[in-house]
Amino acid sequence: MDDPFDSYPQEIKECQQALMNNDPAAAAAKIQEYLEKQKNIPLKIAVTGETGSGKSTFVNAVRGIDDEDDRAAPTGCVETTMEVTPYLHPKYPNVIFWDLPGIGTTNFPADKYLEHVGFEKFDFFIIISADRFRENDVKLAREIQKMEKKFYFVRSKIDHNIQDEERSKKTSFNAEKTLKYIREDCIQGLLKLGIEAPQVFLVSSFELHLYDFSRLHETLERELPDHKKNVLLFAMPNINREIIKKKKEAFQAQIKYFAGLSAIVAGVPVPVLSTTVDLAMMVNVIADYLLGFGLDKSSLQRLAGTTGVPYEDLLVVIRSPLALQILDEDVLLKAISHMSSTLFLMAAEEGSRFIPVLGIPAAMSLSFTATYRTLSFFLNELADDAQRVFKKALGLETAV
Ligand code: GDP
Questions:
Q1: Residue 1: predicted pLDDT
Q2: Predicted local distance difference test score (pLDDT) of residue 258
Q3: SS3 state at 61
Q4: 271, exposed or middle or buried, with CB in 10 Å at 0-12, 13-18, 19+?
Q5: Candidate of 48, 53, 57, 163 to mutate for ligand 1, largest count of ligand atoms within 8 Å of Cβ
Q6: Stretch 111-116: mean pLDDT, rounded?
Q7: pTM
Q8: To the nearest whole number, what is the mean pLDDT of the chain?
Q9: How far apart are CA 107 and CA 109, in angstroms?
Q10: What is the Å distance from ligand 1's center to 197 Cα?
Q11: Which residues form the IRG-type G domain (predicted)?
């Protein structure tokens, strides 16, 4: 018979071993090591294209940063150097974007260019152009392929094209037709330059929720190695309902590890240790939910700014007492005391399957269940808030 335990990461297997050896401190350390490792998986994204193609604006938009922000990549500048600049994601510093000068500005041949920027470190390359892709873009793509790295073509400033077309065609204007035409034109150009089955994504950095940005995320997610998929997902802005749902599922899948940790700590014979550790841990986990769902003050203010929906109108649809809070143990305890007992007693079936895997005794499983239910409760509540905020800010619009 298959051992269901095989599907768990090495640290969890070692955690089980430590429990069997009656060493709860080592077991807890193993789970913590696993969770810490998940948080620090690096994702390095190279963004390259000619000056003015919209690289910096794209890097800022995907990181959820305004161009005026201190952490923003400078936009509208003329490049004169071959400096490569890393820009950290403000919420997930393990996710780094590199704004690389266009190959045409550097006079390096493609292979030397890649060597100079240190291509090995990148998970993938995004090649941006504000019109058709050119010989230089293709030379670079070929060289990236030779290095066994992935690349994606992004055709930027698509909102400009749509506006221009609308202005000139007036009554016969059809957004979908225009997009199809531009996409096809880019693909044909790349085919002619020798790129096989090119994929082109039409993007406006001012409206990531429109056009092909969702499709770009889906493609990246599909093609990234499994252990990096969630890293990308959490760093993504909430540009559609599906992303919010996927973030919720990814957070949900982690809860059993936090609950397992809480069960093991409950087994350590130090009075009140368990409650103190549980509360501190849950504060950190729920703070991650707030960041991931964009339910912190600065994310909501930015959303109000970019969509034109007043900040106060966004606040109206938020129900969780934890949204917008600077979380600490007191705030969490207060919220727990207001939890409706019916909702709180939701089944924790999925999580309870993890109890025999760890082999924790019945008494400790009480702590497991309490943590599992509390985290699941607040996760559900905050994910629902995120969906309502999305609907309020962007209507039901998804990609065109
Ligand atoms: P870079 O030199 O490639 O980094 O290009 P920038 O990001 O500095 O962008 C050059 C100009 O294009 C700036 O004025 C941006 O505001 C503008 N721009 C960039 N992306 C978009 C976009 O998606 N839509 C529109 N309308 N303008 C954009």
A1: 43
A2: 92
A3: helix
A4: exposed
A5: 57
A6: 87
A7: 0.88
A8: 86
A9: 7
A10: 27
A11: 41-223
